[in-house]
Amino acid sequence: MSSEEGLTMTPDVNPHGTARAYDPNATFHFEPGGFLFVVSGPSGAGKGTLVERLVKERPECVFSISSTTRPRRPHEVHGVEYEFVSREEFEQRRAQGLFLESAEVHGHLYGTPAGPADDGVRSGRVVVLDVDVQGGASVRSARPEAVSVFIYPPSIDALRQRLRGRNTEMPEALEIRLGNAPGELKQYLEYEYVVMNDDLERAAQRLVAIVDAERARVRRLRAHPGRP
Q1: Which of 44, 45, 75, 213 has the fewest other C-beta atoms within 10 Å?
Q2: Closest Cα to residue 151, out of 112, 121, 181?
Q3: Beta strand 35-40 with 66-68: parallel, antiparallel or unpaired?
Q4: Residue pLDDT, tens place only, 192-202
Q5: How many CB atoms lie within 10 A of CB 217?
Q6: Closest Cα partner for 44 from 140, 137, 182, 141?
Q7: Short-list 138, 141, 139, 136, CA closest to 188
Q8: Are strands 221-225 and 99-105 parallel, antiparallel or unpaired?
């Protein structure tokens, strides 16, 4: 299989290429492509905390900032956790087709801006979406290639304790979220991965491991023979 010029004929690692000669001393470089990473689950499951840990652990991950009409909570910063907009402005953007997905949840509108998400994927980033179960279904429908993870709480009681511990919900709103939880939990079967959030450190490690595995999928790799 060696050519007369001393180069080794090796099949091209890029599935779109053909066999060609390589310098046996050359190194190889694989560049992972970007993708949407959908993290979903019921309110109080710990999605936000896990996403924050993931983005800190893996610099290739970027958080997709959703738009919402719900009131800003005291600890939240506009343009960091969410983009807070009026219902009128939200409806105008939705009519213009600017959202990848949108849904009304617990009386408020939420949406993922399509432009920044798609731009991030094209640039090779892992664009992380922290969305509710309705949003997760919409993203999977609009972008079937997205990787989806369902964050599962250890119990309904754990959800109740976490929501009360946040101290951000009126009692009526809290009960609505808890009332919706059983139906939302049944949706885990529609996702590719499930992460049980009964231990924060273990759950965060599993989320990071999923991203690492997905970035190593052959269909996402772009090979650059001879590059350092």
Answers
A1: 75
A2: 181
A3: unpaired
A4: 999 999 999 99
A5: 12
A6: 182
A7: 136
A8: unpaired
C-alpha span between 44 and 48 (Å, rounded): 9
| Residue 148 in tokens | 């989806």
How much is the pTM?
Answer: 0.80
Strands 66-68 and 82-84: parallel
Summarised one tens digit per residue, pLDDT across range 47-82 is: 999 999 999 999 999 999 999 999 888 888 888 889
Give the separation between CA 1 and CA 15, rounded to whole angstroms: 20
Query: Could you identify the residue written with the tokens 């983009």?
Result: 83
Judging by beta carbons within 10 Å of its beta carbon (0-12, 13-18, 19+), is residue 126 exposed, middle or buried? buried
Structural domains in the chain plus CATH codes: 33-216 (3.40.50.300)
Q: Give Cα separations from 123 to 102, 120, 189, 210 (angstroms).
A: 24, 5, 31, 20
Rounded to whole angstroms, the Cα distance separating 67 from 36 reads 17
